[in-house]
């Protein structure tokens, strides 16, 4: 029979009174409610999340021998409470020597309960095993040798994407000045992805994430890990996998507020880092925002969730690649982590692949999703439409906090109407297109967004040719 399914109910109505804005835990988690709704996350709740408890950090080979069985290419798993060690307690190598540092996510089954007669209330359920009325989450389908194929595991990068050239893993930029006092980035030494020859996207510890590439350029860098051309193995993080991670977070924590849950503050994480007197130093004297914090720092969390203070890693700041000598307010910031996935929001934007947006107007969207063979702008036969405007407005016309999400085909969370805030409803911001046309998707936010950033933050106004220092990408499998 398998473990009992579990889930979450949410009432999207605002304000959060008389049932509006209320969360309720369901199924195996139903006992963790009180008169006001869902209880806050605690270790006892986490222990009953049977799908999430199987997520674990590991090191993966570059060569994936069998794309349909990627688990066979795991070199070793990391210790559940200390990622500097292997599961057997011996020292792990997180610098790329042994492979890419990833988070294994097991296949799961999902069900959504939604009714046009009650459009403001929704339930999401998951199960680790097949159940009547449940379907395999779309993240666990890939195109392999031209065929849509179900896979038992997906793998998300433990770290933000890093540039690899040949055998060398490189910081996005160098810095100048006294390493113990004031030092700034050397803008002329930026290793922009677009200018590199045969770059590879990597997930390793201790390097500044790479930026300045279009979604297509990041897609190519991810494929270059093993030379695939169809995203059957290494790929840029796709819409469906990100949607699975969002769903797992939502059900476990019982809230859309990932900043409050993971960072302990509604504007927490790294989303306030480039602010105050430090902004000029970070940006090199301009309004350009760049990667600031090297990958790594959350190894002490192992496979768990939570955060690590920047002060615990970098002291008063001199250890960072950029430092202006000031003890600024940003030192209250932390590096968030969800089940081994470090910095899931709020540092730099992360491109998502496998989704094409086609705006007829700013309010009317057709959206297409694919399990593989990704491309930009013109969906191939591998793509299917999962949001249709049908000659009616179906997305907010301007930037807003999203109030409800499209659930057509159980394909994830896409804003449908405005009405939330940084602490109510869908607590992350939706940046809509400013005109009709094809658009690509980025998620998470950057280091100046404050409470606008988060796991559910969506950027939908960029064309496929967009590239800036604020856009990066993450490796997945």
Percentage of residues in helical conformation: under 10%
Distance between the termini: 30 Å
Report the uncertain regions.
none
Structural domain tally: 1
Strand element count:
33
Look at the structure and give the mean pLDDT: 88
> Can you tell me the overall shape?
globular
Number of helices: 6
Q: What profile does the largest beta sheet have?
A: 9 strands, mixed
Category from helices, strands and their pairing: mainly beta
- Rg is 21 Å
* Strand percent estimate: 25-35%
Write a concise keyword list for the protein shown above:
single chain; 477 residues; mainly beta; nine-stranded mixed β-sheet; 6 helices
Task: Give an overview in words.
With 477 residues, the chain is mainly β. The protein has one domain (1-477). The protein has six helices and 33 strands. The strands form nine sheets. Strands 24, 25, 26, 27, 28, 29, 30, 31 and 32 form a nine-stranded mixed sheet that branches. The mean pLDDT is 88.
């Amino acid at each position: 029979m398998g473990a009992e399914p579990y889930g979450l109910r949410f009432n999207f109505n605002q304000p959060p009174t008389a049932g509006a804005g209320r969360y309720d835990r369901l199924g195996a988690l139903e006992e963790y409610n009180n008169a006001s709704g869902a209880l806050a996350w605690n270790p006892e709740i986490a222990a009953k999340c049977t799908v999430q408890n199987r997520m674990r950090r590991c090191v993966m080979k570059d060569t994936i021998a069998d794309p349909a069985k990627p688990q066979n290419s795991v070199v070793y798993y990391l210790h559940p409470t200390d990622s500097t060690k292997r599961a057997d307690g011996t020292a792990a190598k997180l610098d790329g020597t042994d492979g890419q540092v990833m988070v294994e996510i097991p296949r799961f089954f999902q069900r959504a309960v939604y009714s046009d007669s009650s459009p403001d209330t929704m339930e999401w359920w998951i199960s680790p095993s097949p159940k009547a009325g449940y379907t395999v989450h779309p993240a666990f389908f890939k195109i392999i040798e031209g065929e849509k194929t179900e896979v038992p595991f997906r793998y998300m990068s433990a770290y933000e994407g890093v540039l690899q050239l040949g055998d060398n893993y490189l910081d996005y930029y160098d810095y100048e000045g006294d390493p113990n006092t004031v030092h700034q980035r050397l803008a002329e030494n930026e290793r922009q992805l677009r200018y590199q020859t045969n770059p590879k996207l990597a997930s390793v510890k201790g390097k500044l994430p790479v930026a300045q590439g279009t979604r297509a350029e990041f897609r190519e860098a991810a494929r270059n890990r093993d030379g695939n051309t169809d995203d059957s193995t290494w790929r840029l993080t796709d819409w469906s996998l990100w949607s699975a991670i969002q769903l797992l977070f939502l059900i476990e924590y019982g809230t859309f507020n990932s900043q409050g849950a993971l960072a302990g503050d509604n504007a927490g994480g790294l989303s306030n880092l480039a602010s105050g007197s430090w902004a000029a130093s970070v940006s090199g004297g301009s309004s350009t925002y760049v990667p600031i914090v090297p990958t790594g720092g959350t190894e002490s969390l192992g496979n768990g969730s939570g955060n690590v203070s920047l002060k615990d890693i970098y002291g008063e700041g001199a250890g960072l690649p950029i430092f202006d000598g000031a003890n600024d307010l940003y030192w209250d910031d932390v590096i968030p982590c969800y089940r081994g996935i470090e910095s899931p929001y709020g540092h730099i934007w992360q491109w998502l692949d496998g989704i094409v947006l086609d705006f007829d107007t700013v309010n009317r969207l057709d959206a297409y999703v694919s399990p593989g063979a990704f491309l930009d702008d013109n969906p191939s036969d591998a793509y299917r439409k999962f949001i249709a405007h049908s000659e009616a407005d179906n997305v907010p016309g301007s930037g807003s906090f999203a109030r409800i999400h499209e659930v057509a085909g159980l394909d994830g969370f896409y804003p449908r109407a405005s009405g939330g805030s940084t602490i109510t409803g869908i607590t992350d911001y939706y940046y809509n297109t400013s005109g009709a046309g094809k658009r690509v998707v980025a998620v998470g936010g950057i280091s100046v967004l404050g409470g606008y950033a988060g796991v559910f933050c969506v950027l939908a106004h960029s064309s496929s040719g967009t590239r800036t220092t604020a856009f990066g990408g993450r490796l997945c499998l």
